[in-house]
Design brief:
CATH architecture: Beta Barrel
Largest sheet: 18 strands, antiparallel, barrel
Structural class: mainly beta
Distance between the termini: 31 Å
CATH topology: Porin
Oligomer: single chain
Number of domains: 1
Strand content: over 45%
């Protein structure tokens, strides 16, 4: 009875607040996406081929998953020139997961304190101009084809200013602060006198739109505080002895405050539509993080730098019954000799929440909250790999039912000799499940289906298969879990209510 009373009071309070807001000239619009996913991923960490010293196979993670995520956004609209946006998220919640806090509370009694602030920003137009300003917690992504931008695509705190220049051009400038580790005296004292605890990024985007094609060049600069948490976010955390392996930035930076590093990226996104229904997309990116003092004094690997490039392209032909297409990419990889000199050859990344979207199983292009949320079976960034694929998307012979069939082949561009000398996990990015060398390859098949049950409710069935061909000579020498050829498959259903 107490719960019912509390619920009624909450509803009455909300309705009263809405009525008051409308009376003050504020219109409130609510929208959102509620996802519910159920499915099985077999051997998603490629452990079936791994044999323990005792002769027993390693135990795989749980195969079946039931999870949900709720996102609800409210727009508080004062006029066409001013609005405030607030989005909450509950999830991703794995059913049965106990406890309280972020991504917890789906166990017995469902009593988790788990409401997250996803976005909270102000949108307004500078008076007597066409310049728009967005400030606060917001979604920000660099331009990309349908395969996504591997450098940055995430929610972040910042300010974005957009100014039209003419009918065919506009300029977008932004400042964002993705990391700021120390905000109180105690935290600052823990980091020591050489405090460099913030990472600030600044960017310019210049969309140029003409009849039949568009070109969007952009540039991003970041001042990376080595104690800001950036390195821990990008790299896999590892507690290995730094005297036995090359300095591992995520490990060392978390323990060694130091100066900041300079990072910058240049890129361009090109789209050709003048031959519609034939369309073409192209992405070019180059990025670099300057030498970073992370190692121990006297170590010849005291300074680490990273620089790399990426090219990705898509070609699609839209027909009445579906859209056949091809896609491909190449991203530079690490070289053994360069690593010995402290130079990493992969494109550095900054915010990987959106990820690399080439496929729906091995990369991050899955529907909703499938594939274990942000988990990707092979790579979430696409760095250090090249690949090619064909697909037939949005095939529909029955109303409200569409299908996508995709085949992809990709392999690493990282030097296998590097892994034979040092275990690859010391260099793997957090968003990448595997570190692929030029001796390793993956074959992937996706067969995905989307059915619209109602106007606001659709269900997606994703079927995927991966065949990993890992070089035994390379990974046996590295003494890792990745030993031989192995395969993985998934079957997942995702219900989505959109309003």
């Amino acid at each position: 009875m107490k719960r019912i009373t509390a619920l009624l009071l909450a509803v009455a309070f909300t309705l009263g607040s809405v009525a008051a807001a409308q009376a003050d000239g504020i219109d409130i619009k609510v929208k959102g996406q509620w996802d519910f996913a159920f499915g099985t991923i077999n051997n998603k960490e490629f452990r079936h081929s791994n044999i323990r010293p005792e002769g027993e196979r390693q135990r795989d993670v749980d195969n079946f998953e039931a999870r949900q995520r709720v996102r609800t956004q409210m727009n508080f609209i004062s006029s066409e020139y001013l609005q405030a946006v607030l989005m909450f998220e509950i999830g991703d919640l794995d059913w049965g997961q106990p406890g309280t806090g972020r991504q917890r509370g789906a166990g017995l009694d469902t009593a988790g304190v788990n409401i997250e602030t996803k976005r909270a920003y102000l949108d307004w137009i500078v008076p007597n101009t066409a310049v728009s300003v967005r400030m606060g917690l917001q979604g920000l992504a660099l331009p990309a084809t349908r395969m996504g931008n591997m450098v940055f695509g995430a929610d972040v705190a910042g300010i974005v200013v957009n100014a039209p220049l003419c009918d065919n051009a506009a300029l977008t400038a932004f400042w964002a602060r993705p990391f700021d580790r120390a905000r109180n005296t105690e935290a600052i004292e823990d980091l020591g006198p050489d405090l460099s605890d913030e990472t600030d990024m600044f960017g310019l985007v210049l969309p140029l739109t003409f009849e039949g094609f568009s070109l969007t060049p952009y540039a991003v600069y970041a001042n990376v505080g080595n104690s800001s948490g950036f390195w821990n976010y990008v790299f896999v955390d590892d507690t290995a002895d730094p005297d036995d392996v090359p300095p591992f930035p995520g490990y060392l930076a978390s323990r060694m405050p130091g100066s900041s590093s300079n990072a910058w990226w240049f890129g361009a996104n090109f789209n050709l539509t003048m031959f519609d229904p034939l369309t073409f997309g192209l992405d070019l990116i180059y990025g670099r993080v300057s030498h970073t003092e992370l190692g121990t004094p006297g170590n010849h690997l005291n300074n680490i730098s990273a620089s790399g490039w990426y090219i990705g392209a898509t070609l699609d032909y839209a027909l009445d019954w579906g859209t056949p297409g091809i896609f491909g990419w190449y991203a530079s990889g690490d070289k053994e000799r360069a690593i010995e000199e402290g130079r990493m050859g992969r494109l550095p990344v900054l915010g990987t929440d959106d990820g690399f979207l080439a496929t729906s199983f091995g990369t991050a292009g899955y529907y909703g909250i499938g594939s274990g949320g942000n988990y990707c079976s092979v790579t979430g960034t696409g760095t250090g790999t090249w690949g090619i694929g064909i697909q037939v998307a949005d095939v529909s012979f029955i109303q409200d039912l569409s299908h996508t069939l995709r085949f992809a082949y990709y392999r690493g561009t990282n030097d296998a000799e590097l892994v034979r000398k040092w275990e690859g996990s010391f260099f793997r990015y957090q968003a990448d499940a595997l570190y692929l060398t030029d001796e390793d390859s993956v074959f992937e098949v996706n067969f995905d289906h989307v059915y619209k049950i109602y106007e606001n409710l659709e269900v997606c069935l994703e079927l995927g298969y991966l065949r990993l061909s890992a070089d035994e000579k390379t990974w046996n020498a590295a003494d890792t879990d990745l030993k031989k050829n192995d395969d993985s498959w998934k079957a997942e259903v995702n219900f989505r209510y959109s309003f």
